[in-house]
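This part of the workshop introduces the protein records we will be handling. An example says more than a description, so a record of this kind follows.
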Amino acid sequence: MSTSLETLAADAYPRMVATLIRVTGDWTLAEDCAQEALAAAVQRWPLEGEPGNPGGWLMTVARNRAIDALRRASVERRKLAEAGALALTQVDDTVGEGEVVDDRLRLVFTCCHPALALESRVALTLRTICGVPAADIARAFLVTEPTMTRRLTRAKRKIADAGIPYRVPAGPALAERLPGVLAVLYLLFTQGYNADGRPAFAEEAIRLARLLRRLMPGQGEVSALLALFLLQHSRRAARQDAEGNLLPLDRQDRSRWDTVAIAEGLEALAEAERDSPYALQARIAACHAVAPSVPDTDWAEIARCYDALAGIRSTPVVELNRAVAHGYAYGPGAGLALLGRAQEGGALDGHPLALAAEAGLTARQGDRDRAAALFRQAATAAHTESERRALLDRAAETERPAPLDCDTGIERQAPLDRAAETERQASPDPAAETERQASLDAAAGTERQARLGCDADNERQAPTDSATETTRQEPGS
């Protein structure tokens, strides 16, 4: 498949699937016909040339395949009437764009329905909306392709059997469901942003967040989430060296940060409510994105944002990041005092990022021997080899007489935890809170970063940003 066709397919496939599902109500038929249309393009376009309206051509072929399939199956009159309605569907992109895009938004909310398990929502979103092959999703979930195929089939069957409506909810139902949709996007982004993740997943999360923002203007948390994604993803190219080792903020080449993404993220952040959960996390990411260096970062503003997050809902991860931020803003003694309080409940016992944060603050107080020992202890508890190497390097550097520029140094994964952590902090609505809790539990529950749906930058990744921007260089969450 040519590069141009691959690019078109990435956008056209979910459009075709969304439209055909809306009209036929048959999920499998919609996917099959969309795939057949793409296969026809691969065969015919090299010989006949690319049509003037490629998207319209693909939609027409997919529509005709659906009509033929319905006729061959001799479905009841209702299905034939639906086929007739499908034949009248506008396929001119310049005219039908609004309707087609709206179909995709309906599909996002259908895939993310709370009746489905969180893992199924993430997998179904990747497969149906993002067009990610089942084999790739299976690898992300650490299961076999047949197992993932069966899971996807069960999820689609549950949608049909439960009569889950193919629509975007309105009024109170939208407020209840939107946080769950944003949580799924957050999990997708985390899976792609992790140091050993799949960048395409993060890019798909950004694309879907852009779609939501365009189709749901005025939803501040949508804009805030998009800002968070963009500001964090802007640093991706600089997060590792040529050997794949993670780099702390103070060692990243900031000229490699994506200034276009930063500008778009700041513009989206301007639309968000100042102290909503995702907006606070995005503001933290923005402080890092615009700072010329770690010492010149607005740590007082980062500390204020973490104070606000802690006021919404205090969690060990938020408190850990808050401690590091206060350590930079007001001195290592202030940071260690907050960290000590955060560790009192035992939730951070043995947590590599908590150990790394304590090591960084301790080193800045001058006790380099204890700091080096803490870095080595954090390395023992690290979840990935790249994190372990980064922490051991930090231990070795701490034992040398050179001063430390920044707290713990691994950038490791993304920012997410906080996002997911605070995603459920957002709304007081009980149903929405249940939705957020499920997302968070999945995120924090897999500290092994094994499963895509559960790896919301699990709590190990969670604590980052300021805290671990220094600790692993966090993303603004």
User: Anything to note?
Assistant: The two ends are 38 Å apart (CA to CA). The mean pLDDT is 76.
